[in-house]
Give the backbone structure.
Amino acid sequence: MELEKLVAGYVSAGMPGAGALPDLDLGSLSAAAVETVDWRVRRGAWSAWSDAAARVGWCSHPVMLRGSSLTLDAATGVMEGFSSGDAPGGVVRVPCGNRRADKCPACSRVYARDTFEMIRTGLLGGKLVPDTVADNPLVFATLTAPSFGRVHGVRDGGLCRPRKDAGECEHGRSLSCFKAHEDGDEQVGSPLCWECYDWTSALVWQWHAPELWRRMTIALRRALAAHLGVTGAGLRKVATVQYAKVAEFQARGLVHFHALVRVDGPDGPGSPAPVDGVTLAHLVEQAARGVRVEAPPVDGADVPRVLRFGVQLDARTVRTGRPGDLLDDVRTSDELHAGQVAGYLAKYATKAAHDGGVQRPHMRKMERLCLSLAKRAHASDPYSPYVLLGKWARMLGFRGHFSTKSRAYSVTLGRLRAARRRYARLKAESERTGQPLDVGDLDALLLGEDETTLVVGSSWEFVGSGWGSVGEKELAEAAAARAREYARLKASNHKMKREG
């Protein structure tokens, strides 16, 4: 037992939160992970592995590359080279970058943090976005999928569908349900009658959902132009529409969109807007309810469809943009609210269809049907867009991006990633030279245009992905879980100090 404690302490020393969190409980790990720990500790190889895992942020499936690159510092004229031959094992590991929490908890957390910052800067400014965006009208909209048949759900009242007079469907199944479902119940989201449910229309809607959103943004700009009495082409002279949108899978397997919509003046982000938030909410709802897509049939045996968003549409005013309005309140209140909204959207950007490991039977049916519809479409017309449904079967037919924004809403994810790489380079240089890093204007330093470094030659090849064993993968995910726990601990301590 004492030896086990010593080993647990030694292993934990190389993981996030060392000293602040309890030592890793080896008993909670699988036999494969414990064997990996034992093998590496006895051979003195644990530190090397933990350092390598830390460099990729405890990624579950790091990508292994072999090659070299050559960079030129334009300011000094110094040429520097880097080769994978200088790395342990002759390969360089980089994070997989997967946004899905069920695939890589570590990388999805980075994606969520970046999405949080992207959304938050569009709410309050910062990271080279003017602070005056916090004064402009803002609307939070939720656009859902229509109903394709009655489904089981978690209801506020407790029982699913407690109607004694609901009767039965044409297949003899009851249209009521007196069960109180819980979130983890695999029956949640599944149809009351699988024969009555319009599976094909649901998947066709899912396939065209990105096009519905695109047309909604066009309709919103046209509605705003009509409200302001200008032409569509002349709208840019008086106002611009900016948005950030994330897609979330519902329990029934269909996505719905959460979006923050902001109106700026003609001079860019933060310039005074010509409408208020109440009017903007009305225009968003008007555009969303009016938009439609005419979807072609899957094959000769199918029918064309007119697709719309669901009737459960919500557009709420977050800020009116009018000085002194009660919704604007004080800046500290806005900041708290902005953080909550940004965190809410960032969380959903990392979800997948099978989030939380709940493999619901109706989702498995949707996967199979995607493959079946793709084959039907190909047999009818090899150039049909539905032929690609099989490629997106794992996403239940949804082919859109889970996180999108308009060009001028806020900072881009690409620029945030570039800033992270630049910070790592500057920090390493600071440690090498002993010169402290100037953090006086860190945003400008990290997010500004980088004209000092130029890659003049690069050649890399893919070697493989993942860790050497199941045990190593589990250890990386255990460390990633500790990193999340440590981050929550630091945030809690920071909040207590701030409030105390």
Notes: Residues 127 and 442 are 9 Å apart (CA to CA). Confidence is low (pLDDT under 50) at residues 326-336. The longest strand covers residues 453-465.
